[in-house]
């Protein structure tokens, strides 16, 4: 039996937390446990997957409501089963889930039990009544299938091919989708004309694919019923994970860069993270907090060229200083003519 998982606890949050706090906590923990930053810590990858799974539920308003409907009486580690009569799906969704027989892998058993792996058939192929004297059904197009594929910002920047597995109803080879053999119901598919089959597919992620974009794979959906029936289509909805540092906007990306007060005053070169690694950027003397600077051709790659990276300057003030530093700041205060609360500086 699947174990109850407290996704709020996985993100270090309370149940009444805001959506913004959920995203902020996810970004912080994803950065902390990212496998690329913890190559010597084998437990980091497990923790990273737990954080991803928790955000996939709590970061989605619909899934969060479904999860919250379980109530607060379940403790982490308890054997979990659905409360009697608990099922958020509509009748059509239940029928579709029964027809497809499974979903997209990669999450825990608890996640699969709640959300079916994120995949639902949009509509199962309708069935016609058996023709008189055991005649085969008329050819009927298969139903479309929709699934969600989670990708990273690097995936849509570099372009990637993702391998996914999902159960899709395929036309029964024994009865060719007719449901009948020799006037009797087909034993292979029990007269349904199709049977679930696990299919492994490779899906190419286009450059700069947007969050919420839908990819159509013609003929990769449900198998049709009847001879020469056409299969339905597979629709793949792209979900881009929030990045711990970058925020995409079209083909541009935005980043907030912390700088020290003396860097902002004196200017100079500073290191700036980009999708391709660190680069040097010239900071003009007297740079103000909140100033925006542009790194051309450092944004997302697209078929029509590359975007820019927008760098927003955030001047950080030290909160813990030594006595020597405090003395120097006092000296600066005594000799400086800078008056931030007057419109014009004194000429004396």
Written overview of the protein:
The protein has 348 residues and is an alpha+beta fold. Helix content is 25%, strand content 25%. It has helices at residues 7-10, 19-33, 42-58, 61-68, 91-100, 109-115, 153-158, 261-266, 323-335, and strands at 120-121, 145-151, 160-171, 180-181, 184-185, 194-205, 214-217, 234-240, 247-249, 252-259, 268-274, 277-283, 292-295, 301-302, 305-306, 309-315. The strands form six sheets. Strands 1-2-8-7 form a four-stranded mixed beta sheet. A four-stranded mixed beta sheet has the order 9-10-16-13. A two-stranded antiparallel ribbon has the order 3-6.
CA(first)-CA(last) distance: 80 Å
| The level-1 CATH class of the largest domain | Mainly Beta
CATH topology heading of the largest domain: HSP40/DNAj peptide-binding domain
User: Which word captures the global form?
Assistant: elongated
Strand tally is 16
Helical fraction? 10-25%
Task: Tell me the Rg in angstroms.
Answer: 28 Å
Summarize model confidence as the mean pLDDT.
Answer: 78
Largest sheet: 4 strands, mixed
* Total domains: 3
Number of helices: 9
Largest sheet: spatial strand order? 1-2-8-7
Fraction in beta strands: 25-35%
Which class of secondary structure composition applies to the elements?
alpha+beta
**Which regions are unreliable across 5 or more consecutive residues at pLDDT < 50?**
72-79, 83-106, 117-136
Spell the H/E element sequence: HHHHHHEEHEEEEEEEEHEEEEEEH
At CATH's second level, what is the architecture of the largest domain? Sandwich
The CATH superfamily of the largest domain turns out to be Urease metallochaperone UreE, N-terminal domain
């Amino acid at each position: 039996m699947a174990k109850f998982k407290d996704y709020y606890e996985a993100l270090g949050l309370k149940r009444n937390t805001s959506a913004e706090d959920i995203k902020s906590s996810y970004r912080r923990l994803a950065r902390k446990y990212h496998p690329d930053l913890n190559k010597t810590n084998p437990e980091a990858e497990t923790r990273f997957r737990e954080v991803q799974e928790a955000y996939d539920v709590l970061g989605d308003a619909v899934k969060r409501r479904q999860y919250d409907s379980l109530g607060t009486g379940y403790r982490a580690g308890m054997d979990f089963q659905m409360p009697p009569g608990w099922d958020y799906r509509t009748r059509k969704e239940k029928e579709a889930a029964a027809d497809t027989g499974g979903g997209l892998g990669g999450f825990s058993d608890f996640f699969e039990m709640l959300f079916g792996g994120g995949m639902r058939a949009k509509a199962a192929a309708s069935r016609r009544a058996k023709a008189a004297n055991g005649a085969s059904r008329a050819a009927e197009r298969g139903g479309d299938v929709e699934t969600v594929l989670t990708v990273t910002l690097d995936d849509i920047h570099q372009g990637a091919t993702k391998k996914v597995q999902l159960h899709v109803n395929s036309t029964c080879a024994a009865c060719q989708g007719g449901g009948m053999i020799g006037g009797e119901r087909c034993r292979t598919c029990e007269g349904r004309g199709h049977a679930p089959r696990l299919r492994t597919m490779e899906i190419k992620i286009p450059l700069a694919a947007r969050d919420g974009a839908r990819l159509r794979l013609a003929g990769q959906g449900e198998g049709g019923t009847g001879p020469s029936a056409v299969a339905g289509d597979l629709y793949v909805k792209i979900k881009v994970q929030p990045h711990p540092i970058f925020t995409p906007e079209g083909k541009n990306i935005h980043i907030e860069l912390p700088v020290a007060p003396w860097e902002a005053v004196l200017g100079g070169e500073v290191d700036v993270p980009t999708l391709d690694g660190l680069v040097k950027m010239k900071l003009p003397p007297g740079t103000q907090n909140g100033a925006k600077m542009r790194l051309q051709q450092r944004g997302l790659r697209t078929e029509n060229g590359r975007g820019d990276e927008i760098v927003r300057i955030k001047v950080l003030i030290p909160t813990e200083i030594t006595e020597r530093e405090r003395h120097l700041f006092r000296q600066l205060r005594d000799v400086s003519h800078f008056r931030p609360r007057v419109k014009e500086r004194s000429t004396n």
